[in-house]
Amino acid sequence: MSALFIRVILFMTMLMLPRIAVLPEVQAAPKVLYLTFDDGPSERYTPEILDILRRAHVKVTFFVLGFRAEQYPQMVRRMRAEGHEIGNHGFYHEYILGKPDNWVRHDVERASQVIQKASGVNPVLYRPPGGLIDKHEMSVIQQAGHPVVFWTIDSKDWMATSNEEIITNVMSKVKPGAIILFHDGVSNSRHTAQALPTILAKCREQGYVFKVLPIHRTSLKTALVSTVPGTKAQ
Ligand SMILES: [Zn+2]
């Protein structure tokens, strides 16, 4: 074997090395899902949902309502104590679309204060009730220090008549990086609680892991999804 031939082989090996090094990393890129629960805490469903999440070792993000945090501060404390992220969903779930700036600021701030009192932590993320918000209102809230987060998959649990519907809605659309909207504080949340163990198991079978939404704005670039005017959830 000539020295030149060996050098060529070595050179080619070096060329290939970076690909060998990068490939396993790409293949191992985590399939992350961000589960989010709005409109709670509710006395009826939040403890059940928290129990399911604890048993499954899954952390999620709760977008809490101010007036409910005031009613059930111990549940907000429990969310935090069990490692979940807590976001702000306004005080009374009043739609902010078309409201004056001062009203918008006051609603977010009032909810923040109650959530902070209950959990000891100031919520960073904000999700508008119903997903209804315009660009200007969004900038008002972001300037107050709250990145606005929507969702990419609506489980439609707020209108579901069975847990199977919720499972189908989620599993037919699930994909890496998805932010999934559920509710722990509406009358249909019992279906959510019933559907949740199956959804967690099916997603895990497909290799997904669950994370809380990152609260830093830079990490949220992919999480910020434009709302469709007229989009309406609970
Ligand atoms: Zn809501």
UniProtKB/TrEMBL annotation:
Instruction: Output the GO biological process annotations, alphabetical, semicolon-separated.
Output: carbohydrate metabolic process
Query: What SUPFAM superfamilies has UniProt attached to this entry?
Result: Glycoside hydrolase/deacetylase
Q: Write one Gene Ontology MF term.
A: hydrolase activity, acting on carbon-nitrogen (but not peptide) bonds
Xref: Gene3D superfamilies: Glycoside hydrolase/deacetylase
Recorded hits in PROSITE patterns, A to Z, give:
NODB
Pfam families, from UniProt? Answer: Polysacc_deac_1
Q: Where is the NodB homology domain?
A: 31-211
Where does the signal sequence lie? Answer: none
Looking up InterPro entries in the UniProt record yields: Glyco_hydro/deAcase_b/a-brl, NODB_dom, Polysacc_deacetylase_ArnD
What name goes with this protein?
Polysaccharide deacetylase family protein
